[in-house]
Amino acid sequence: MTPDQNTSNNPIDNSTKKSVAVSSEHSETVQTSNPSSPWLIVWAGLSITLPILLLYIYSCKPEAFSFTGVELKQILGNQDIDAMLATLDEPETPTNTATAAPITDTTNSGLAKDSTLPFLTQGSGVFTLPAYELPVFADTTKHRILLIGDSESGGLRYPLNDYCLANGHKLVLSMEWYSATVFNFGRSDTIDKIIARFKPTYIFLVFGLNELYARDLKARKIAANQLAKKLRNIPYAWIGPANWDEDFGINRVFKSSADSGTFFLTKNLTLTRAGDGRHPDVQGYRIWMDSVANWLQTSAKYKMAMKPPRKRGRPFRSLIITLNAAKYRGY
Fold first, then answer.
1. What count of other Cβ atoms lies within 10 Å of the Cβ of residue 106?
2. Whole-angstrom distance between the N-terminal and C-terminal Cα of the chain?
3. Going by DSSP bridges, is the β-strand pair 70-71/66-67 parallel, antiparallel, or unpaired?
4. Staple 256 to which of 74, 80, 85, 178, CB 3.0 to 4.6 Å?
5. Are 284 and 290 in contact (CB under 8 A)?
6. Which one has a higher pLDDT value, 71 or 191?
7. Rounded distance, CA 65 to CA 30, Å?
8. Which among 102, 122, 120 has a CA at the least distance from the CA of 111?
9. From CA 28, how far away is CA 26, in angstroms rounded?
10. DSSP states of 46-60 as a string?
11. Is 311 helix (H, G, I), strand (E, B) or coil?
12. Global confidence as pTM
């Protein structure tokens, strides 16, 4: 008997070979069925995600879809912005100040305490803006400029400072209200008090970054109208936010509340962005201010001297007030 024959007739070896063969077949079966599992997961995910995505896209479209005469309702709905703006711009009934609700005292609020700004911490009751004389407006007027806005105004104040120094203007105050919206600026009396204290001859408003996705446009329109009332008889430039994405109508709301020729639409500018993706970087703020300055000299209702500065990055020595809407909302 040869060794080969002896090996082949060994029952243990034969059973081992059968086991190996069975295991091999089972392994092949498992391997053939495994590749389909990831695709099942992908198809399951798409069957859930795709309908939701299509519904969201449909809700954002201005047109409604009809099928056999039945209009499919949109989840988010689209507002008729033009009709809403026209309605809210109708003459308002004068408010009786004698019965108006008193404004809460800000003594214990989060508003910045400053010995040079006593009006911010005095008393309570309805605040009325005292009258003061403005200079006869002309392009050559040397202005007392007040800058008010959200966090984007904090970056724009430095190139604005360069323009002020180059053109003989004085930037009397930069008030940066973090996370603020038109509700903070329109509903509170903080702006009235700032104007009364610093008596600006020109006001820059820069905000809207925190409202790009706002859909409650009717409420924001009312607040924007309230803010516009505070600026009457004072030359101003209402500068829209630097959009990194399309807004839902907040720029149109602001433009409709501002006087004709006083609103600057920033969203069409291409500005370089900072690392956070929300704010312009140093170069972006300079490009932004250059565009605003050109508009102020050529197209704005209240034109002013804004020749480009020869030096950039001049020292900033104006007063700065910083507020946080999370701690002090103003109303």
1. 20
2. 106
3. antiparallel
4. 85
5. no
6. 191
7. 48
8. 120
9. 5
10. HHHHHHHHHHHHHHH
11. coil
12. 0.66
